[in-house]
Design goal:
By secondary structure, the chain is α/β, with parallel strands linked by helices. The protein folds into 2 domains: 3-131, 3-Layer(aba) Sandwich (Rossmann fold), CATH 3.40.50.2300; 151-222, Arc Repressor Mutant, subunit A (Orthogonal Bundle), CATH 1.10.10.10. It is built from 11 helices and 6 strands. It has a 6-stranded parallel β-sheet with strand order 2-1-3-4-5-6, with helices on both faces. Residues 158-223 form the HTH luxR-type domain.
Length: 226
């Protein structure tokens, strides 16, 4: 299945570079280019891409505002899934990361990411998972680990999110909160990677978390990770 990609960046050369990388790879196609956030929102509605590569700093409607309008919205084609947004920026700034995640972005990478890693990231995001640049992931986990988490009983929303999960799913959630991958979790719990994926899917559904990054946040809020 071909992954349909929309490129949004205010610099024509940057758009051309990303288009060249994506179009040259098997299983990918660029369905459009946008120079502003407003154009990205309109094109996303018209072309129903699987993934939008979104710059942050653009004139008028910036990438964060555009992400908020695009992420999670249904394309006009009823058979299409949710449009995923992968932020690509030059600026490794924490406020951007947090705002992008709150806006619904599924990934956050820096523009100096090698082409093969960019393509791998697009695949991950298109498949419904979340992905952050390694340096950003480490900082995110450190920040949440440094915050004293209230007991679950003092956080009604978190308690509601965890109310229906099984003990095994709680174990998986704890390991997700520690930053482990599916294969590492499978090793730790002596189960298959496929079983881990099933548990992750159940956690996403039961907690109404958007993606894996939000499961990390949930694990820290719940006090499962010390």
């Amino acid at each position: 299945m071909t992954i349909r990609v929309l490129v949004a960046d205010d610099q024509a050369l940057v758009r051309a570079g990303f288009r060249g990388i994506v179009d040259a790879a098997d299983g990918f196609t660029v369905v459009g280019e946008a120079a502003t956030g407003a154009e990205a929102v309109e094109l996303a509605r018209r072309t129903a891409p699987d993934v939008v590569l979104m710059d942050i700093r653009m004139p008028g409607t910036d990438g964060l505002a555009a992400t908020r309008q695009i992420a999670g919205s249904r394309a006009s084609n009823s058979s299409a899934g949710e449009v995923k947004v992968l932020i690509l920026t030059t600026y490794d700034i924490d406020d951007y990361v947090y705002t992008a995640l709150r806006a619904g972005a599924s990934g956050f990478l820096l523009k100096d990411t090698p082409p093969e890693e960019l393509l791998a990231a697009i695949r991950v995001v298109a498949a419904g998972d979340a992905l952050l640049a390694p340096s950003i992931t480490r900082r995110l986990i450190r920040e949440f680990a440094a915050r004293p988490a209230p007991p679950v009983c003092e956080d009604p929303y978190t308690a509601a999110q965890l109310a229906t999960i099984t003990e095994r799913e709680r174990e998986v959630l704890t390991l997700i909160g520690q930053g482990l991958t599916n294969s590492e979790i499978a090793e730790r719990l002596f189960i298959t990677t496929g079983t881990v994926k099933t548990h992750v899917g159940h956690l996403l559904a039961k907690s109404a978390a958007r993606d894996r990054v939000h499961l990390v946040i949930l694990a820290h809020r719940a006090g499962l990770v010390g």
